[in-house]
Every structure is written in structure tokens, then in C-alpha cells.
Amino acid sequence: MKKDNLERFVRDNREAFDDKEPSGNLWRKIEAGLDNSGHDGGADGINGLPNPIMPFRQIHTNIGRADRRSTGWLGSRQIGWPMLDWRIAASIAVLLLAGAFLYMNGQYGVTHQPEIVASYPTYAKEVVHYTKLIDDKRTELKQMTEDNPALYKEFATDLDRLENSYRSLKADLPQNPNQEVLIQAMIQNLQLQINLLNEQLRVIQRIKQQTNETTPV
Amino acid sequence: MLNLLDSNQNAGPTYPDRHADLVKRCQQGERRAQYELYQQYVKAMYNVCLRILNHEAEAEDVLQEAFMDAFTHIGSFRGQSTFGAWLKQIVVNRAINHLRGRRLELVDMESHRLGEDDGPDFADTEPYDEEGVQFEVDRVRQAMQKLPEGYRVVLSLYLFEGYDHEEIGHVLHISETTSRTQYLRGKKRLLELLN
């Protein structure tokens, strides 16, 4: 019957329990704190305008103040460096991420060949390396055969044949159950293209040498 | 949670619309309105802090932070609860965070930590016979102060702030059952201290 005496007693005397008062200067401290955060935010409360609300910075400045006032403060809100502006932190993070992405993209060609990167990152690196080589050599070839478009065309058809088979391999990749073998075949194809290009460049060089020799000095 | 709090809110003079105007003026950054709201709630909130922290200077520190927090974020107060309930939530959360921070320095040897519990112990939670216990405000208050921290916090939230065990579980990151057993044990200890 008297099981809940304590609960009832507290409920009935609730007001009497709330009899302690904080010290009189508490409001002044709060006011000072509010003013400070107002100055931090630029336009403050002097002219009665609302402060631009900056919750994160607000929390950090509060923590800074608390640290100075009571050394015993070790609140769990203290996440990082107390005075670090969150916007700076955010922009640094964004820059780092963008940099990391660009580097990875250069190394692995994420945007060019996402399917390979996803399943075989080590091969992806190889593929990127070879395709870059091929591009370089192809432009070189183009430059050297500027005066001989017929020769370039001949070379290009050979190269295109290889490139077409590379493309069909790549198209097969998503459905192929043995992807690793396929990727190896693709890499082999790229190596063939490089060898062919090297061969073609050598041929052109020889032709140029011959024409140089035959032209009378 | 705000709605739950709203229904059993019993700290301070709070009636749904009573301070709506003051709140609005605070949202516009009016310092006098802030002071008036502060006047309305400071005593009740101070006692809430004091019961949880059991330390006057720390209670004032936490209260200062809580009021500053409330006034800077009053723009996000949408009136789903009374202002008093909203404010009390900030105060209680801040006070409990402060306790957590404090424990990093002072590991209390009795290990009655927040949320630490060795499982339900039925013999231990048997209700204490409350008959013949003389209740007086001062004696109850003193007995509360002698309780281990974990009990004190659960008891003050349940008995004084009208939180239910689900809500206590939320704030303290413990299960509802743990809150219940902690409460029963704490109450038993309190009654022993009162006898």
C-alpha cells in the first residue's frame, strides 16, 4: 500500500527541493559569453540585430573559454583542436580528397576503365601505363609521317586491327566469368600494340635515314 | 523524446504558450527577453544541474554553458515542446556530458559508473519497505548526495525530472532494463540511508 511513498513525497514537495540558487554574477557571465560569440560572428547584438548563427564555431569558442576557466573540464564535446575553424577543416579535407582522387585516377585510370579498377587494381595500373605509352608513340608516329600520309594510313590500319580486338576484349569483360585471363589478354594486346609501334617507328627512322643519304649534299 | 518530455515536464513554470512571445523576441536576439527567460528558469535549471552533478561550482559552469547554448541556438527551437522542456533537455545533456568528462580524471573506485551494471539481481532489487520511513526534504536531499553517482543520476532523472526509463536509457546510453534495476537499487539504498 505504501510502496510508492518516496515517489509521492518527491512529487508533492517538488518545489521545496528546488530551493538552491546560483551565484548572482551568472547572468553577467552568460551575457559576456553571448557578446563574445556575437563579435566572433561579425555583426553582433549591439544594434539589436540577430547574430548570424554559426553553431560549430560557437561550440568551439565555448570550449575554449571553458578550458581557460576551469581546468577540470574534459567534456566529451571536445572533438579536435578547439580553435580550428570548421570551414578551414572542411576545405582542407575536400582538397585532400580531390588530390587523392586525381592521383588515383592518373595511376589507375578510374574514370577511363572503372570495371578493371574495381576488380583488378594492379592490372589497372599496368593498363594505364601501356595505354599512355601507346598514345605517346602514336603521336610520335603521326608527326614523323606527316610528309607521308600513305605510309601512316598503312601503319594505322595495322594498329587499328589490334585496337579493335582490344575493344572487343574489353566489351566482353563484364560478362566473362574468367576476368583475370581476359584482362591478361588485354594487356598482351596492348604490349603487341607497343611492339608494333616500336617496329613502325624504326621503319620510319630507317626510311628517313635512307632519304637523307640519297639526297645529295 | 521532446514530446514525451513535454507531457511530464514539471520543472519550472511552463505552460505551452506562456513564453511564446519571449521566445520569439529571443529569436530576434533581444537581450532583455533573454534575461527575462533566464530569470524564469535559472533556479529550476540550477537545481536540476546540482542534483545531477552534486557540485555547486560545476553546476554553475554547466548552467552557464547550457544557457549560452540555448540562446545561440534558439533559432532552431520550433515549439514542438515547451521552451522549458527544450531548455531542460539541453541542461540535462550538458550535465551528463560533464559527468562523463569528469570520469576521465576521477575513476570512481566503487565503480558505480553510469550505465555499468552486472545484470539484473533480483534479491538486490526487491522493493524496500517504505513504511515507517520519515521523509523530509532536507534528509532526502542529503541522502541523495550520499548515493553513488550512477544511482544519483538515475534517481534524479526519474524522481525529479520525470524522465521514464526509456528516456533515461537514451540520455545515459544504457538499456531500459538497466535503468530500471539501477533505479530500484538506488531507491533501496536511499531508503536505507533515510532510516
Describe the overall structure:
The complex is a heterodimer of chains A (217) and B (195). With 217 residues, chain A is mainly alpha-helical. Chain A is 71% helix and 0% strand. Chain A is built from nine helices and no strands. In chain A, α7 (121-144) packs parallel to α9 and α8 packs antiparallel against α9 (179-214). The termini of chain A are far apart. Chain B is mostly helical. Chain B has two domains: 17-101, Rna Polymerase Sigma Factor, Chain: A; 130-194, Arc Repressor Mutant, subunit A (Orthogonal Bundle), CATH 1.10.10. Chain B has nine helices and no strands. The model of chain B is unreliable at 1-15, 106-112 and 119-123 (pLDDT under 50). Chains A and B meet through α1, α2, α3 and α4 of A and α3, α4, α5, α6 and α9 of B. Chain A: Keywords: Coiled coil. Chain A: Residues 152-207 form a coiled coil.
Core attributes:
heterodimer, A: 217 residues, mainly alpha, 9 helices, 71% helix, elongated, B: 195 residues, Rna Polymerase Sigma Factor, Chain: A, Arc Repressor Mutant, subunit A, 2 domains, 0% strand, disordered N terminus
